[in-house]
Design a protein that fits this description.
Order of helices and strands: HHHHHHHH
Number of helices: 8
Largest sheet: none
Number of domains: 2
Strand content: under 5%
Distance between the termini: 126 Å
Oligomer: single chain
């Protein structure tokens, strides 16, 4: 049995065909290459992010204060709301405060990063301003011997110097604002309770108690006692005493 062989005929390609093939390859669109965009975060954009994050955190504090105010209003207005119920619900405000304190750490880190970048930018601006001031002074010192091109350079330098000074002023302002934000965040564990506790509802009631009993020392002592015994903030203790004094049928008798 004869063995079958595959015969391959190779055709010689002419230089003209090679040239056409090369042109066709060049005209083909390049294959899509997936590239990850790397966008450098500028000091200015970092500042904007930090400022926005801080503003968001301040908004969260105001929301907690609004919840606290709503709690106090209901406790004051409703005869059927007992202090025991309010105490349990105050735990919700505590959880909200703790969550804000956790979020504050991320905001603080962002502000620190923005501060570092802006401080670096400030140093560069100050150095570049110095160089331009020196160059301008050198050109001025030459006086009337300046050629036309150097005179034009001096005029350009003076404009650049004004621009650099303005940029430095703006950067200093941003640095001051960020430092103020940072100070507020570092104080927050100590001040958060005060910042998120409403006083608008309870303070007028405290004045009512003083006006009625004319014994502020005793009123303060009673309020402090309620705060310690019940473990509640001062505004709620004031409301509790006020309800006992002005609505004895609900509270079971006056505190005085």
């Amino acid at each position: 049995m004869s063995e079958k062989r595959r015969i391959v005929i190779r055709r010689k390609v002419s230089p003209e065909e090679l040239q056409v093939e090369s042109v066709e390859q060049a005209q083909k669109p390049p294959e899509a290459v997936e590239e990850s965009e790397v966008t450098e975060t500028t000091p200015a954009s970092l500042y904007e992010q930090a400022a926005a994050s801080f503003a968001g955190l301040r908004q969260r504090l105001e929301e907690i204060r609004s919840w606290d105010r709503a709690y106090q209003r209901i406790f004051k207005a409703r005869d059927d709301v007992r202090i025991e119920v309010v105490k349990k619900r105050l735990d919700k405000l505590i959880d909200m405060r703790n969550q804000v304190l956790t979020e504050a750490q991320n905001v603080e880190n962002l502000i620190n990063e923005a501060l570092g970048r802006l401080e670096t930018e400030m140093a560069v601006l100050e150095e570049e301003l110095f160089d331009k001031l020196v160059e301008a002074e050198y050109l001025r010192d030459r006086g009337g011997s300046l050629p036309p091109e150097s005179q034009s350079r001096l005029e350009s330098l003076e404009k650049e110097i004004d621009s650099y000074r303005q940029r430095i002023v703006e950067t200093k302002k941003k640095l001051t604002e960020l430092q103020h934000m940072l100070d507020k965040l570092r104080e927050l564990p100590r001040t958060i309770h005060e910042e998120t506790t409403s006083v608008e509802e309870a303070e007028p009631l405290y004045k009512d108690l003083v006006a009625k009993f004319r014994d502020e020392v005793k009123i303060r002592s009673t309020i402090d006692k309620i705060m310690q015994e019940q473990g509640i903030p001062r505004p709620y203790a004031i409301i509790h005493v006020w309800k006992a004094a002005f609505k004895p049928k609900v509270s079971g008798g006056s505190q005085f």
